[in-house]
Amino acid sequence: MITAQQLYKSFKTRTGTVKAVDGIDFTAEDGRITGLLGPNGAGKTTTLRMLYTLMKPDRGQIRVDGVDAVQDPAAVRRALGVLPDARGIYKRLTARENIAYFGELHGMSKASIAERTRELSARLDMDDILDRPAEGFSQGQRTKTAIARALVHDPKNVILDEPTNGLDVMTTRAMRDFLLHLRSEGRCVILSSHVMQEVAALCDRIVIIAGGRVVAAGSPGELREKFARDSLEDAFVRAIGSEEGLPA
Ligand SMILES: Nc1ncnc2c1ncn2[C@@H]1O[C@H](COP(=O)(O)OP(=O)(O)OP(=O)(O)O)[C@@H](O)[C@H]1O
């Protein structure tokens, strides 16, 4: 389980201070997919970066399975699988080597790395690319490799920044099935997206973020009710006050 309490993060830029995250609270439960939904620049990536200990919040608290992310970032990282916004796979290594490298960093034995790679490759349908160097991989192939690598140590909590960004329809569907599978294993899954349909199709709980704040949160059904409209699309537009994030 992941909880964020009163998170704040600002950046100083040449033209002034940007309040990227301005008091965000939410809880992501185990066995649930929680979606952070918001337009470009809403503060999703900054929030996720704080959750996975890449950045320290200016204020506020993050707990992963009860462990404070600022006080014990190493323990938190062990409990997390992360698909960062920059996928960052090593091009000179094959997909299998990319996965194994992370497994070794987590102190796994060769045998358990091999076994876990076999499982994840079957789930992600990537047997055909496992032994190819990542140089030249398509976006979908890079994403699959990065996800397999993130999950090699079997983390209880999974954080994915825009997991279906740039994927075609078939690969997006396969990715959704994969995320539902992670949920069925009882993991806590958090993903970000700026596409309303994406989170509506997948998430048990949606946290709508705009301007660094949570403007609404609930299940897709609760959000529809809250905004007393028929579609989640309308609820989203009302919550963020614009039509960003909807297909043209
Ligand atoms: N390192 C940084 N330095 C300065 N400003 C930053 C930095 N990181 C983020 N920001 C600013 O903080 C705000 C929130 O950015 P963030 O990347 O968290 O948004 P996002 O919701 O993930 O957007 P997108 O959907 O476009 O990825 C933006 O105004 C962004 O320009």
Automatic annotation (TrEMBL):
A Pfam family that the UniProt record links to this protein: ABC_tran
Family of this protein: Belongs to the ABC transporter superfamily.
MF annotations from Gene Ontology: ATP binding; ATP hydrolysis activity
Source organism per UniProt: Methylocaldum marinum
Annotated ABC transporter domain residues: 2-236
SMART domains linked: AAA
SUPFAM superfamilies: P-loop containing nucleoside triphosphate hydrolases
UniProt protein name: Sodium ABC transporter ATP-binding protein
UniProt cross-references to InterPro entries, sorted A to Z: AAA+_ATPase, ABC_transporter-like_ATP-bd, ABC_transporter_ATP-binding, P-loop_NTPase
Keywords in alphabetical order: ATP-binding, Nodulation, Nucleotide-binding, Transport
